[in-house]
């Protein structure tokens, strides 16, 4: 399997928990799990990058990602496989569900990376999302506020799909 680096921002701990669970499922060492508030963008050691952010407020990136996203945009992502994940609230913020994941996607598309890990929107309840491209989510979206009973299954299915392409 390819060398994987996981980069996440987390305010309440939900996205960090998801990142750690993804790391377990993909056998990613803790040293390759990075909080973006302390991370650099030297991605040379990795073949695959996973970027995760919760959506805050009305579709905003998590605070640490607000600063980190410009660094990612300036980084060399050519030849890398990139998968995205994030947390959101599909009930209270149904018109901006997972928008932060869409913002990360928009910031790095065209940077020479290959996006993997798209997820069907089937089974999700929301009104609108910047994370939907060509009828699918650009990555895994988790709603621990309203659909926590689906979190483990969604992570397990997503990581199994990732294993087929990394």
Automatic annotation (TrEMBL):
Record keywords, A-Z: Electron transport, Flavoprotein, FMN, Transport
Signal sequence coordinates: none
Cofactor(s) required for function per UniProt: FMN
Domain Flavodoxin-like, chain residue ranges per copy: 4-163
Molecular functions per Gene Ontology: electron transfer activity; FMN binding
InterPro entries with a match to the protein in the record: Flavodoxin, Flavodoxin/NO_synth, Flavodoxin_CS, Flavodoxin_lc, Flavoprotein-like_sf
Homology family: Belongs to the flavodoxin family.
Role, per record: Low-potential electron donor to a number of redox enzymes.
Protein name as catalogued: Flavodoxin
Organism (species): Dysgonomonas gadei ATCC BAA-286
Taxon lineage: Bacteria, Pseudomonadati, Bacteroidota, Bacteroidia, Bacteroidales
